[in-house]
Amino acid sequence: MGEFTSVDDEDILKFIESSKPKIYIVGTGGSGSNTIDRLYDLGVEGATLMAMNTDAPHLIKVRAERKLLLGKKVTKGLGAGSDFTVGEEAAKESKEEIKHMLADANMVFVTCGLGGGTGTGSIDTIAREAKELGALTIAIVTLPFSSEGKTRMKNALEGLAKLKKTADTTIIIHNDKLLSIAPDLPLNMAFKVSDEVLANAAKGIVEMITKPGMVNIDFADLKMVLKSSGYAVISSGESSQQTDRKKNRALVALENAVKSPLLDVDLGTAKKALINVVGGESLTLREAESIFQEVSSMINTDALIKWGARIDKDMAKESLKVMVVISGVEFTEYSDENIEKKVDELSNLDLDEVFEGDKKKPINL
């Protein structure tokens, strides 16, 4: 017998194709554009990559399907000079173009490294336009390394305070916490690790809904967890072998994710969670469910949890990876009150900290 087909299959397939959610990943500024480049290398199924920048020479090199030079009149394509007010003006100038590019979106990721000019200044405008168009809007941002200086951190915190009020969910990745994972990395390599974490966060969430699995998460599930959720954190862990009878590879992978410095919050405050389990051909439904049960025991008993599991034939048979997105968390460090306090501290530096003795020798800020 040949393969069974129905006369209605073609119409159903056309409907499936037309009803797929339109997902855009927008990288803005230098760091955000670098993340888009990294996503191009990684490959992300089911999303369109977009880059926006005020720096024309940098933008032309980015491997994005769509590009937008922000603020042609404001910056002349020469960048924002680390001034986030210039980045903000550039985004406002290009607001109609941003709106046009995102017009049919169902979900928009906006990503940047907070602290600089273009990314910090433009990301709030981009997120606001996406949200006003009705798209689920997820911001994934990094906070600067301490070595980048106090001014950059002050700018980043001011940008974060605005963004949190605009995006549905804001996922924070603090670069200093990346350094605690690999403390001896040269700074240029540390920035690449930061780009990698941003890229994998966006890719992981997108492919939760674009790649079919044993247990599927659909767009409606994703929306329930990430809509109007405030701050979120994301982490992943991996295991490739059975360690002992008490700790199987599923729980080892989860433990690696939960112990990550990137997940340094009180999980008991979480209101929602997304769990995605991906493994080689030996992955079992029982293993995936054990991860769900374990996460359930860690967070608020009333928390909404959605989970999915799929087999990736390209992974080694014994490998297993778990990604956890915890949203609605109480991030005391980045509450409105604490951000305002920190910004004030950074704005009112004592001159004695800026100059040393009679030599008036500037120190690095």
UniProtKB/TrEMBL annotation:
Q: What is the lineage of its organism?
A: Archaea, Candidatus Micrarchaeota, Candidatus Mancarchaeum
Annotated CDD domains: FtsZ_type1
Q: Which HAMAP family match?
A: FtsZ (MF_00909)
- Provide the protein's localization: Cytoplasm
Q: Name one Pfam family in it.
A: FtsZ_C
Main localisation, per the record? Answer: cytoplasm
What is this protein's name?
A: Cell division protein FtsZ
Entry's Gene Ontology cellular component terms: cell division site; cytoplasm
Give one GO molecular function term: GTP binding
Q: Which InterPro entries match?
A: Cell_div_FtsZ, FtsZ/CetZ, FtsZ_C, Tub_FtsZ_C, Tubulin/FtsZ_2-layer-sand-dom, Tubulin/FtsZ_GTPase_sf, Tubulin_FtsZ_GTPase
